[in-house]
Amino acid sequence: MRVWTIANQKGGVGKTTTTVALGGLLADRGKRVLLVDIDPHASLTYYFGIDSEHLELSAFDVFTQNAGMTAEQFMQALQPTAVKNLDVLPSTMALATLDRKLGTQSGMGLILKKALHQVRQEYDYVLIDVPPVLGVLMVNAIAACQRILIPVQTEFLALKGLERMMRTLTLIANSRQQQHPYTIVPTLYDRRTNASMQAHQRLRELYGEHVWNGMIPVDTKFRDASRAQQVPSQFAPKSRGVLAYQSLLTHVLQLDKAGERL
Ligand code: ADP
Ligand code: MG
Asked: Separation of 39 CA from ligand 2 center, angstroms?
């Protein structure tokens, strides 16, 4: 089971879209995929039409019951989607209270990792959609994964946000003495603007090989797909956006295979 975390401390950069698009593509290929929503905004949960406010079990229970949750209970928290091979661990607003609840307890950073370990036979890939906040949820997501994908909007202000994210990663890496491989994913690329092009070049200058050589274009099909509650690859398989995510997936799978630390 491979676990990827999709994170950036900025909202609206395409984290949830990237999680859903890549998850959908992996499921299309017959991989068993679990999408973990730990953003209290629950965008990913709502994407699939799951009613976040009326759940018996959710990611919140995973964190609050901690070691008390059996593998069976964890499985009960998972929701199937209309997409074959694609399940969701749904989020609820209550997750926003976690930092206050568990902030200082020891071992609180490894709860998600331990929970996912229980389903390692059931899934090939787990993709974690993280809130844009440095806190117990992000720490858990990073501890639980083997790779971090960082969607970054190709515009100059977004590069500032990325600096913050990179400092956070260094902070977490130092405290855990473990540096995760990461891939920066340029998103919302508008080929009609120079700013988009320049931001992409600047990303390469700053982060070199960590920046995926392609980019995810602005594509209205993503919004249409989310309105239809379908993964992009099944809603518009030949769209520019889906083709771009396909080539991103190929890139990341190659990195994983090569075991590169990029
Ligand atoms: P985040 O999870 O980082 O907050 P989202 O993935 O929810 O960002 O994207 C924010 C908004 O932008 C959503 O309405 C989404 O549909 C839209 N969006 C994301 N990526 C694209 C894209 N490549 N082209 C067009 N719209 C996009
Ligand atoms: Mg989101």
From this structure: 7
